[in-house]
Amino acid sequence: MDNIKTLANCTLAEFLRQSNKIRKAAADFYKTSGIAEIRKHLPDVTGKSEEEAKAMLKEQKAKNISDILDACLDTNAEKTIEIIGLFCFKEGDEVNDLTPADFLDVVVDLVSSERVMSFFIKMANMGQKSTEDTSQE
Fold it and tell me: Residue 94 gets which letter from DSSP?
């Protein structure tokens, strides 16, 4: 990953501006990819014992995670690649310059950065309220 700029190695101003681009792209992706709907899938536990209900919820959670991964890695792979590109300041055709090895290096670099992870965890917590109306420029 020679000389690829990422959120972990950029200036603070670049970090904030790029994070905002990522936030907007992620909010749009969340709405258009079907992930919002997948997360709503819950089993009908009416009349089930507490144990049965827990087991059904656990099974549905695993299915939802699998469906979300399908939405990200298969159905919407190109949009996922665009968002990944934003983490290393690549947009448009520049994203095609990234190899799978570059991608893995970027992921390791980002998740190893306490600054980046802390920021996005805090942003995600704030975003739980709603980011739907803030994705417009």
Answer: G
What is residue 44's DSSP assignment? -
Distance CA 46, CA 18 (A): 46
Exposed, middle or buried: residue 112 (CB in 10 Å: 0-12, 13-18, 19+)?
exposed
Determine the pLDDT at residue 135: 44
> 3-state SS string over 66-98?
HHHHHHHHHHCHHHHHHHHHHHCCCCHHHHHHC
- pLDDT digit string (tens) for 38-85? 999 999 999 999 999 999 999 999 999 999 999 998 999 999 889 888
Three-class secondary structure of residue 10 per DSSP? coil
Write down the pTM of the prediction.
0.71
| Residues 114, 121 contacting (CB under 8 angstroms) | no
